[in-house]
Amino acid sequence: MSSSFPTKEIPSNPRRVALAILHQNGRFLMQLRDNIPTILYPDHWGFFGGHLEDGETPEVGVKREVLEEISYHLDNPILFGRYDDDLALRYIFHAPLTVSIEALDLQEGADLGLVSPDAIRKGECYSSKLDKVSPLGDIHRRILLDFMEDY
Predict the structure, then answer these.
(1) Which strand (E) or helix (H) includes residue 87?
(2) pLDDT tens, position by position, 5-21
(3) Taking a C-beta distance cutoff of 8 angstroms, is the pair 39, 113 a contact?
(4) Fewer CB in a 10 Å sphere around the end CB: N or C, the chain?
């Protein structure tokens, strides 16, 4: 793990989110977010996870979000770090994806896929479902580049 993670002064009322880096055979499961202008990172590849509920711990939140979004029971996620900016306090967890991608039930987002390190470095990924290339969210790409450096 990196000795320090990027942090900024915490906003007065930050969004607290928990996100999952799910990895399998050297690739990373990502969600192609819906193309809705009112959401963060519309039509970009990002992590599964989301907002924490009041009083919810980041570990409980990431497990709940992953279950809601892809019907995957996330066992023993490991905290990688926290990335803060003006938009959110992001708790980043990682764990192996122990089922095939076909066993997942996408409930949120336009597509999902296992993204290669080369695609992460390039900053974009192809969606076979939508037959198009979409960018990775900047923060998601930065987190994955840090993760690949450390693991």
Answers:
(1) none
(2) 444 454 566 799 999 99
(3) no
(4) C
